[in-house]
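Notes from hallway chat w/ T.B., transcribed later so I don't forget. T.B. wanted the structure written out for a chain they're using in a teaching module, and asked if we could keep both sequence and structure tokens in one place. Agreed to drop them here.
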Amino acid sequence: MQVVLLESADLAIERESRQFLQLERAVQPRYQLDQDAGLPAVSPGGNRTVAYQFCKRLLDVLGACLLIMFLSPILLAAWAVLFWATRGRPIFRQVRVGECGGEFTLYKFRTMVLNAEGFRHEVENEQDGPVFKNRRDPRVTRLGAFLRKFSIDELPQLFNVLRGDMSLVGPRPPIPAEVRHYEPWQLRRLGVRPGLTCLWQVNGRCEIGFKQWVRMDLWYVDHQSLTLDLILLLKTPGCVLSGRGAY
């Protein structure tokens, strides 16, 4: 019974997602410009009911704790190898834009050379829109490519979930430079707490164009529920292990 229910809900998500991707939505979110940071302060969106917010936060805390304990051998092994390979700098910290335009520090395992930003202008951007992606980015180390393929580099973000910066499920958090180039309708994806996994994550990741990516996030914002969160969490391991669209 549970399998049938999951498959039915999954098919509904895919069907509505395809319909959503065919529409050119020009939604104007309510926002004001933060003059200090140059970033928009977006109004809260998604499911704002007290019951959902409580259950989602409880799921985040319990889920993150369990995943950290279960994946601790992988976390420790990756940290130890990177500590040696990066001369003591295994963790990459980057400012990202979170819920309603607020900023926070995101943690990742380092997958690029230490001076990667200095060579960014030499790398071609293969993605459309404001995001920067290159399938064969020369700045990514061989170890980093392996970590990225199976999303091991993202595991430190479980601590961002515990801190409340992120959720287990939600749109991926962008960097401030990307948000400054958003079209008005794209800002609405910032109305909910960013997450580790999302529709984009389980539907091809970097194989998907930026506008389709944003539309998937807006579909999630409009249909946010505990059932949808659980379905996306159940789909994530298989998609991650396949390595599809990860680079």
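Follow-up for T.B.: The longest strand covers residues 91-97. Might be a good example for the class.
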